[in-house]
Write a structure and sequence with these properties.
220 residues, alpha+beta
Protein backbone atom coordinates (compact mmCIF):
# COMPACT_ATOMS: atom_id res chain seq x y z
CA UNK A 1 0.00 0.00 0.00
CA UNK A 2 3.02 2.26 0.28
CA UNK A 3 3.16 2.71 -3.52
CA UNK A 4 -0.41 4.00 -3.70
CA UNK A 5 -1.44 7.64 -3.59
CA UNK A 6 -3.64 8.50 -0.64
CA UNK A 7 -6.69 8.76 -2.91
CA UNK A 8 -6.10 5.19 -4.09
CA UNK A 9 -6.02 3.79 -0.56
CA UNK A 10 -9.77 3.90 0.01
CA UNK A 11 -11.36 0.49 0.28
CA UNK A 12 -8.08 -1.40 0.02
CA UNK A 13 -7.84 -2.86 3.53
CA UNK A 14 -7.02 -6.56 3.26
CA UNK A 15 -9.14 -7.17 6.35
CA UNK A 16 -12.52 -6.17 4.91
CA UNK A 17 -12.27 -5.85 1.12
CA UNK A 18 -11.89 -8.01 -1.96
CA UNK A 19 -11.62 -6.84 -5.55
CA UNK A 20 -14.22 -9.28 -6.91
CA UNK A 21 -17.21 -8.91 -4.59
CA UNK A 22 -19.84 -8.28 -7.25
CA UNK A 23 -20.13 -4.51 -6.78
CA UNK A 24 -21.41 -2.56 -9.78
CA UNK A 25 -19.54 0.59 -8.80
CA UNK A 26 -17.80 2.35 -5.94
CA UNK A 27 -17.28 5.90 -4.76
CA UNK A 28 -13.93 7.58 -5.26
CA UNK A 29 -12.75 9.92 -2.52
CA UNK A 30 -10.44 12.90 -2.22
CA UNK A 31 -7.48 12.11 0.01
CA UNK A 32 -8.85 14.22 2.88
CA UNK A 33 -12.09 12.19 3.25
CA UNK A 34 -13.86 11.69 5.61
CA UNK A 35 -12.63 15.10 6.86
CA UNK A 36 -14.82 18.00 5.61
CA UNK A 37 -12.08 19.85 3.73
CA UNK A 38 -8.51 19.64 2.47
CA UNK A 39 -7.24 21.68 5.45
CA UNK A 40 -8.13 18.81 7.78
CA UNK A 41 -6.64 16.09 5.61
CA UNK A 42 -3.56 15.71 7.80
CA UNK A 43 -5.80 14.42 10.61
CA UNK A 44 -6.82 11.31 8.63
CA UNK A 45 -4.64 8.21 9.15
CA UNK A 46 -3.99 5.82 6.29
CA UNK A 47 -5.62 3.00 8.25
CA UNK A 48 -8.89 4.96 8.24
CA UNK A 49 -8.65 5.60 4.51
CA UNK A 50 -8.05 1.92 3.79
CA UNK A 51 -11.23 0.85 5.60
CA UNK A 52 -13.47 3.53 4.09
CA UNK A 53 -15.58 2.66 1.06
CA UNK A 54 -19.03 2.98 -0.51
CA UNK A 55 -20.37 0.54 -3.10
CA UNK A 56 -23.49 -0.14 -5.10
CA UNK A 57 -24.76 -3.66 -5.70
CA UNK A 58 -27.75 -4.87 -7.68
CA UNK A 59 -29.84 -5.06 -4.49
CA UNK A 60 -28.21 -2.77 -1.91
CA UNK A 61 -26.03 0.18 -0.99
CA UNK A 62 -23.14 -0.56 1.34
CA UNK A 63 -20.62 1.78 2.97
CA UNK A 64 -18.13 1.99 5.80
CA UNK A 65 -17.27 5.46 7.12
CA UNK A 66 -14.90 4.55 9.96
CA UNK A 67 -13.92 6.70 12.91
CA UNK A 68 -10.38 7.42 14.03
CA UNK A 69 -10.68 8.42 17.73
CA UNK A 70 -7.10 9.73 17.95
CA UNK A 71 -7.05 11.38 14.50
CA UNK A 72 -3.71 10.97 12.72
CA UNK A 73 -2.27 9.06 15.70
CA UNK A 74 -4.88 6.30 15.40
CA UNK A 75 -3.46 2.87 14.59
CA UNK A 76 -5.26 0.25 12.50
CA UNK A 77 -6.32 -1.62 15.63
CA UNK A 78 -8.10 1.46 17.03
CA UNK A 79 -10.12 2.43 13.91
CA UNK A 80 -13.84 1.98 14.59
CA UNK A 81 -15.93 0.67 11.70
CA UNK A 82 -19.27 2.36 10.99
CA UNK A 83 -20.99 0.12 8.47
CA UNK A 84 -24.19 0.96 6.61
CA UNK A 85 -26.03 -1.61 4.53
CA UNK A 86 -29.40 -0.63 3.04
CA UNK A 87 -31.42 -2.77 0.65
CA UNK A 88 -32.96 -0.99 -2.33
CA UNK A 89 -36.50 -1.51 -1.00
CA UNK A 90 -35.79 0.79 1.96
CA UNK A 91 -34.86 4.49 2.24
CA UNK A 92 -33.09 6.25 0.67
CA UNK A 93 -33.70 4.19 -2.50
CA UNK A 94 -37.40 3.82 -1.73
CA UNK A 95 -39.89 6.01 0.11
CA UNK A 96 -40.08 5.50 3.85
CA UNK A 97 -42.77 6.15 6.40
CA UNK A 98 -44.05 9.56 7.54
CA UNK A 99 -44.53 9.76 11.32
CA UNK A 100 -44.06 5.97 11.42
CA UNK A 101 -47.63 5.37 10.19
CA UNK A 102 -48.18 6.31 6.51
CA UNK A 103 -45.99 6.07 3.38
CA UNK A 104 -44.12 9.29 2.64
CA UNK A 105 -45.28 9.66 -0.98
CA UNK A 106 -47.77 12.55 -0.82
CA UNK A 107 -45.12 15.11 -1.92
CA UNK A 108 -43.40 12.89 -4.46
CA UNK A 109 -40.81 10.13 -4.23
CA UNK A 110 -37.44 10.38 -2.48
CA UNK A 111 -34.36 12.01 -4.02
CA UNK A 112 -30.74 10.90 -4.01
CA UNK A 113 -28.46 13.65 -5.26
CA UNK A 114 -24.90 14.88 -5.50
CA UNK A 115 -24.16 18.35 -4.15
CA UNK A 116 -21.25 20.18 -5.74
CA UNK A 117 -19.70 22.91 -3.54
CA UNK A 118 -19.32 26.26 -5.30
CA UNK A 119 -18.51 29.86 -4.40
CA UNK A 120 -18.57 33.30 -6.04
CA UNK A 121 -22.23 32.89 -7.04
CA UNK A 122 -21.57 29.46 -8.48
CA UNK A 123 -18.65 30.51 -10.69
CA UNK A 124 -15.95 28.53 -8.87
CA UNK A 125 -16.05 24.77 -8.29
CA UNK A 126 -14.65 23.96 -4.84
CA UNK A 127 -14.85 20.18 -5.13
CA UNK A 128 -11.06 19.77 -4.85
CA UNK A 129 -11.13 21.67 -1.53
CA UNK A 130 -14.33 20.37 0.05
CA UNK A 131 -15.33 17.33 -2.00
CA UNK A 132 -18.77 16.52 -3.36
CA UNK A 133 -21.52 15.18 -1.13
CA UNK A 134 -23.94 12.37 -1.81
CA UNK A 135 -27.17 13.29 -0.06
CA UNK A 136 -30.75 12.05 0.20
CA UNK A 137 -34.11 13.66 0.88
CA UNK A 138 -37.34 11.86 1.84
CA UNK A 139 -39.40 13.49 -0.97
CA UNK A 140 -38.92 15.83 -3.92
CA UNK A 141 -41.66 18.35 -3.02
CA UNK A 142 -42.98 18.31 -6.60
CA UNK A 143 -39.70 19.81 -7.86
CA UNK A 144 -40.32 23.21 -6.22
CA UNK A 145 -37.44 25.62 -5.58
CA UNK A 146 -36.71 27.54 -2.39
CA UNK A 147 -37.45 30.97 -3.88
CA UNK A 148 -40.28 29.91 -6.20
CA UNK A 149 -38.39 30.26 -9.49
CA UNK A 150 -34.75 30.22 -8.33
CA UNK A 151 -32.51 28.87 -5.65
CA UNK A 152 -31.82 25.31 -4.63
CA UNK A 153 -34.58 22.68 -4.75
CA UNK A 154 -36.84 22.66 -1.70
CA UNK A 155 -35.79 19.12 -0.85
CA UNK A 156 -32.29 20.36 0.00
CA UNK A 157 -33.79 21.85 3.19
CA UNK A 158 -34.40 18.36 4.54
CA UNK A 159 -31.56 16.57 2.80
CA UNK A 160 -29.12 14.53 4.85
CA UNK A 161 -25.60 13.44 3.99
CA UNK A 162 -24.73 9.88 3.03
CA UNK A 163 -21.14 10.48 1.90
CA UNK A 164 -18.67 13.35 1.87
CA UNK A 165 -15.37 14.05 0.15
CA UNK A 166 -16.52 12.23 -3.00
CA UNK A 167 -14.77 12.72 -6.36
CA UNK A 168 -17.08 10.96 -8.78
CA UNK A 169 -20.50 11.85 -7.40
CA UNK A 170 -22.35 11.87 -10.75
CA UNK A 171 -20.86 8.58 -11.97
CA UNK A 172 -21.58 6.91 -8.64
CA UNK A 173 -25.23 7.99 -8.86
CA UNK A 174 -25.48 6.85 -12.47
CA UNK A 175 -24.62 3.30 -11.40
CA UNK A 176 -26.98 3.54 -8.40
CA UNK A 177 -29.75 4.73 -10.73
CA UNK A 178 -29.24 1.80 -13.11
CA UNK A 179 -29.11 -0.69 -10.23
CA UNK A 180 -32.35 0.68 -8.79
CA UNK A 181 -34.11 0.54 -12.16
CA UNK A 182 -33.14 -3.11 -12.54
CA UNK A 183 -34.24 -3.84 -8.98
CA UNK A 184 -37.58 -2.09 -9.55
CA UNK A 185 -38.31 -4.16 -12.66
CA UNK A 186 -37.31 -7.39 -10.94
CA UNK A 187 -39.40 -6.77 -7.83
CA UNK A 188 -42.26 -4.84 -9.51
CA UNK A 189 -42.17 -2.06 -6.92
CA UNK A 190 -44.28 1.05 -7.74
CA UNK A 191 -42.30 3.69 -9.62
CA UNK A 192 -43.79 6.49 -7.47
CA UNK A 193 -42.08 5.01 -4.38
CA UNK A 194 -38.60 4.85 -5.91
CA UNK A 195 -35.92 7.52 -5.71
CA UNK A 196 -35.02 9.92 -8.48
CA UNK A 197 -31.38 10.89 -9.00
CA UNK A 198 -30.19 14.46 -9.53
CA UNK A 199 -27.16 16.70 -9.21
CA UNK A 200 -27.31 20.27 -7.88
CA UNK A 201 -24.84 23.07 -7.18
CA UNK A 202 -24.37 24.59 -3.74
CA UNK A 203 -25.50 28.07 -4.83
CA UNK A 204 -28.63 29.78 -3.50
CA UNK A 205 -29.05 32.09 -6.50
CA UNK A 206 -28.69 29.36 -9.09
CA UNK A 207 -31.48 29.77 -11.64
CA UNK A 208 -30.81 26.42 -13.28
CA UNK A 209 -32.97 23.42 -12.51
CA UNK A 210 -31.55 20.39 -10.77
CA UNK A 211 -30.14 18.05 -13.40
CA UNK A 212 -31.36 14.49 -13.65
CA UNK A 213 -28.68 11.81 -13.48
CA UNK A 214 -28.76 9.27 -16.34
CA UNK A 215 -28.23 5.55 -15.88
CA UNK A 216 -24.93 3.73 -16.22
CA UNK A 217 -24.79 0.00 -15.74
CA UNK A 218 -21.29 -0.27 -14.24
CA UNK A 219 -18.24 1.87 -13.69
CA UNK A 220 -15.23 1.38 -15.92
Amino acid sequence: MGDKSKSDMYGTSKYIQTESDGALGKAEFYDFAPAPCVCCGFLIPDAQRARMYAKIYDNKYEANIPLAPFCCLTTELCVVDMFTVVNHDRPPSRAGMCCYCIPCTCCGGPVIYSLKPKCCCGMMDCSANCGQQIKAAPCKFFGLKKFLCCGAPCYESCGYSLLGGVKNGDKFLQVWHAALEGYKKKTELPAKEMAIFQTIDDCEIDWRKAKNVPQQQTMA
